[in-house]
């Protein structure tokens, strides 16, 4: 059957949308309420890219500390408020620390979460995605009591690790508006590695019984759609394909399949840093 060019484009669009729907990581079949995702990954891992392209997160409220920092910086300059942060340069490590402490002292993380949960109805608990490093399991454990009290089902509390090659993360970090100091950068990746290795071995925090996924967020593992006329990558569209593993299904233990375990630990060995700050200094 002969297809016109416009019909071919329409067919390609339909097939791509169908494929994307199947490929995207969905939580409880894309349910719009009652889902919690802890999105782990060291600084510069590209979690923002993962949220937009891999997770179908349009139904989630994303809690990202970096976004709060940007907002308060804007308020400080536009409204002439918060003189202690108004002139900070987030390319400087000492200023990054000051900004971090400012947000921490305000207690924004706890206050906004409490407000969100207090206003939620039992049958309409919001989908929430926590953008964390998971440098230690306290990133999860500290929040679980409030989630439990609000009525979230442990089977709907999930963990996704955005695992990016450490050397690529160093370069990503250097190009950001807010540069994470080298020693902190290293600790976030080491911590995420150690926390996730614990989970992969089956030591999932009590109160988390949803799915566990690892996304290998390296450039060579991500396939973009290509313009058939120019051959150029269409980065404005969601990606065509990416690499991930599901290590746990809701309500079930972590998979002990030898092939899956070997694959994920190979990823860890090939993409995470050693235990010395010299690893960063050689590349940065």
CATH uppermost class of the domain at 33-64 and 126-283:
Alpha Beta
CATH fold title of the domain at 33-64 and 126-283: Rossmann fold
Through-space gap between termini: 56 Å
Strands side by side in the biggest sheet = 2-3-1-4-5-6
Explained architecture:
The protein has a domain at 33-64 and 126-283: Rossmann fold (3-Layer(aba) Sandwich), CATH 3.40.50. It is α/β, with parallel strands linked by helices and 284 residues long. Strands 2-3-1-4-5-6 form a six-stranded mixed beta sheet, with helices on one face. The chain has helices at 5-23, 47-53, 65-78, 83-86, 93-106, 108-119, 138-141, 144-150, 166-174, 182-200, 258-271, 278-283; strands at residues 36-40, 61-63, 128-131, 157-163, 212-216, 243-248.
Set out the fold topology.
Layout: H1 5-23, E1 36-40, H2 47-53, E2 61-63, H3 65-78, H4 83-86, H5 93-106, H6 108-119, E3 128-131, H7 138-141, H8 144-150, E4 157-163, H9 166-174, H10 182-200, E5 212-216, E6 243-248, H11 258-271, H12 278-283
Parallel strand pairs: 1-3, 1-4, 2-3, 4-5
Antiparallel strand pairs: 5-6
């Amino acid at each position: 059957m002969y297809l016109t060019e416009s019909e071919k484009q329409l067919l390609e669009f339909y097939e791509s949308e169908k494929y994307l729907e199947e490929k995207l990581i969905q939580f409880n079949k894309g349910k719009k309420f009652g889902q919690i995702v802890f999105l782990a990954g060291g600084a510069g891992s590209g979690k923002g890219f993962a949220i937009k392209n891999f997770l179908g997160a349009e139904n989630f409220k994303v809690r990202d500390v970096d976004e709060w920092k940007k907002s308060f910086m804007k308020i400080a300059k536009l409204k002439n408020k918060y003189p202690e942060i108004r002139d900070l340069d987030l390319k400087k490590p000492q200023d990054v620390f000051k900004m971090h402490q400012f947000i921490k002292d305000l207690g924004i993380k706890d206050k906004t979460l409490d407000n969100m949960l207090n206003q939620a109805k039992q049958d309409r608990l919001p989908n929430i995605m926590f953008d964390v490093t998971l440098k230690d399991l306290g990133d999860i454990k500290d929040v679980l009591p409030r989630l439990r009290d609000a009525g979230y089902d442990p089977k709907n509390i999930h963990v996704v690790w955005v695992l990016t090659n450490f050397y690529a993360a160093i370069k990503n970090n250097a190009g950001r508006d807010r540069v994470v100091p080298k020693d902190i950068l290293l600790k976030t990746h080491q911590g995420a590695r150690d926390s996730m290795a614990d989970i992969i071995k089956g030591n999932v925090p009590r109160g988390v019984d949803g799915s566990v996924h690892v996304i290998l967020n390296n450039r060579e593992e991500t396939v973009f759609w290509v313009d058939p006329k120019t051959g150029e990558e269409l980065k404005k569209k969601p990606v065509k394909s990416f690499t991930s593993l599901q290590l746990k299904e809701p309500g079930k233990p972590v998979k002990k399949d030898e092939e899956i375990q070997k694959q994920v630990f190979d990823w860890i060995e090939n993409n995470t840093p050693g235990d010395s700050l010299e690893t960063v200094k050689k590349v940065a």
